Amino acid sequence: MAIRLFAPGRRWSVAVAGAAVIGMALAGCGGATKSSTDSGGSGGAAAQGTANPNGQVKKGLKIAFLPKQTNNTYFTTLDSGGKKAVEAGGGVFKEVGTSSATDTAGQVSYVNTLTQQGMNAIVLSAQDPNALCTSLKQAMSAKVSVVTYDSDTNPDCRQAFINQASSESIGRSEVQLLGKELNYTGDIAVLSAAQTATNQNTWIGFMQQELKDPKYAKMKLVKVVYGNDDAQMSFQQTQGLLQSDPNLKGIIAPTTVGIKAAAQYLDGSQYKGKVQLTGLGDPNDMRQYVKDGTVTAFELWDEVKLGELAGYTAAALASGIITGAKGETFTAGDLGKYTVGDKGEVILGDPTVFNAQNIDQYNF
Amino acid sequence: MSAAIQETVQPAPVRPSESKRFVERILRVRELALLVVLAVLIVGTELDDHRFLSQQGIKDLLLNAAILVIVATGEATVVITRNVDLSVGSTLGIAAFAAGDYLSGGGNPLVAVLISVLLGAALGLVNGTLVSFGRVPSLVVTLGTLYIIRGVDSIWIGSRSIVASNLPHNFVQVGHGGPFILPYLAIIGVVVLVLVGLFLRSYRSGRELYAIGSSPEAARLAGVATRKRITAAYLFCGALAGLGGALYLARFGNVDSGTGGSYELTVVSAVVVGGVAFTGGSGSVYGAALGAVLLTTINSVLPGLGVNSSWEQAIDGFLLLAAIAVDRLVAVRVANVLRRRNVRHG
């Protein structure tokens, strides 16, 4: 998952990597026999024929979800949405994946195996933007539709990417949310995940741009710290922030692990209610803190809907309704009509803001 | 280090008490040095930032250290016997989830702590039995159980997680509350530490742990029930890791299948920095506790000073090497001094 870079289970990488090497060797043998190699050229996106926008979703499609990590609450919720969408279209849903979020070799072997099993579509959260390309291209040349969700590969290695929300709207809306809570005055800081997390850094970049707006003249981003998505480290980083800056009025934690750690610390400290906290969080994790006043509001995309949209997009691709080219439209069940954007991106929408009024309507 | 000392001391016919006092003094100096480093660190930070020792600041320091102190105390008793327990992180994780799972079903907090401790003790018993009766190197055995426990943990927990809202309010309150600036967690930590310290210092079975660590063969020949003692040390270490798990749950209110991952490395670092030698038979739980406090204090100070978090691990590593270097240096010195004395007296 994109926002929990250092997710649970990475201690397993050693054991799993060992298994993966064997798995890869096996899968590699099978894969080599049908290697018609690269599906070639620019934008593997539009590789498969022409779109038939008036077509129907085929029945009995076999669609496999390959999350970045199994046993991860976020992906379990996402894939429950995917299952719902696939089965609503009369397809067969399947979920496989590695238990470590950094086991790229394992993910490659899963892609190869799914291709050999004759899946109609693979929905994937990529652990690495490049490493999976060869096997994904093989999959597409074997007429398997490839959709990425949560975390993308290079655009020419898949047909469509389901983006939870544009990075720009995530970054900017968090600053807007905090600005409103603070009446646009005071020092603020960011508690991020890992220093190397691309998505975090992109969001932080947009936060800084949003802060250039004159209405934030009295708000200053004083520090960005990294809690590595570890409860203890996020605790200590939050302590450090509060200790080193007496004028700190707000913290943005654009990571679901970071925000709940920071909330738990604030809840048990003298800063509760005095320092505002917002960011990206799971409603189930944050419910208590919203109700006891530690947190006023936070946001996240609707995880179930993100999974659903991925499922519907995969079915539409596998049925030939779309090919992943810009401007194509399709109906994603009861989510409504969606249009494929630049580089095959389909954007779910703006993030949902959760507060005391609406949080009980969400369960994930 | 004291293995070397023992060899030179035992055949010496003269005044063992004097040599012993000398060695004890050296060891005390070792702990004193840690205290000085800790004091310099805290005073220095306070001078730079006056809110470091505010009420909240002190509370945070104590809270950050408490759990590590408890688990490191358990680890130290195992390391003293010339063994190691690498499965403490996994044990802490699974015990924390067991307590959380029970509590989210509306259980009693005290029973939850008991569940954690018993689960930890059971896992420790497995480790101890494998190490002492299987005669397999403890590093390998506990590396194995580290992965096995983590695997069982992942299968059992799956993608579930326990968050603070699942837990009874009074249980979470214990995680950060306490009279004035003294958090409950720190009180529990000090009580555990003092009890274990007394046991290791003044009780026959406690002294036997040192004897085993100094020379397992000699201890066995002297009639020490080595297997039983080693098994007991592991059982105890597991129980404390389990207790640590329950307290982790109370403090962070946030447990999933990854909880406690890599924690064993922090624990072992604390023990070694605290002067409990890996060669067994030397060091004290007070040293290990000081090591734990030093490590967590550094990790609290650095963010406060605005040092990039990537530096923390490097600094921890440096500290570890420095501690080992000092130990080695002291060991060589002590051995030399003792040898010279023996020659003089002999």
Automatic annotation (TrEMBL), chain A:
GO terms for molecular function: carbohydrate binding. SUPFAM superfamilies: Periplasmic binding protein-like I (SSF53822). Residues 1-27 form the signal peptide. InterPro entries: Bact_Solute-Bind_Prot2 (IPR050555), Peripla_BP_I (IPR028082), RhaS (IPR013459), SBP_2_dom (IPR025997). It comes from Rugosimonospora africana. One of its GO terms (cellular component) is outer membrane-bounded periplasmic space. One of its GO terms (biological process) is rhamnose transmembrane transport. Keywords: Signal. Residues 63-320 form the Periplasmic binding protein domain. PROSITE patterns: PROKAR_LIPOPROTEIN. It is found in: Cell envelope. NCBIfam families: RhaS. This is Rhamnose ABC transporter substrate-binding protein. It comes from the Bacteria. It holds the Pfam family Peripla_BP_4.
UniProtKB/TrEMBL annotation, chain B:
Pfam families: BPD_transp_2 (PF02653). CDD domains: TM_PBP1_transp_AraH_like (cd06579). It comes from Rugosimonospora africana. GO terms for molecular function: transmembrane transporter activity. The chain crosses the membrane at residues 61-80, 110-133, 181-200, 230-249, 261-278. Part of the ABC transporter complex LsrABCD involved in autoinducer 2 (AI-2) import. Probably responsible for the translocation of the substrate across the membrane. It is found in: Cell membrane. One of its GO terms (cellular component) is plasma membrane. It is a multi-pass membrane protein. This is Autoinducer 2 import system permease protein LsrC. Keywords: Cell inner membrane, Cell membrane, Membrane, Transmembrane, Transmembrane helix, Transport. The keyword Transport applies. InterPro entries: ABC_transp_permease. The keyword Hydrolase does not apply.
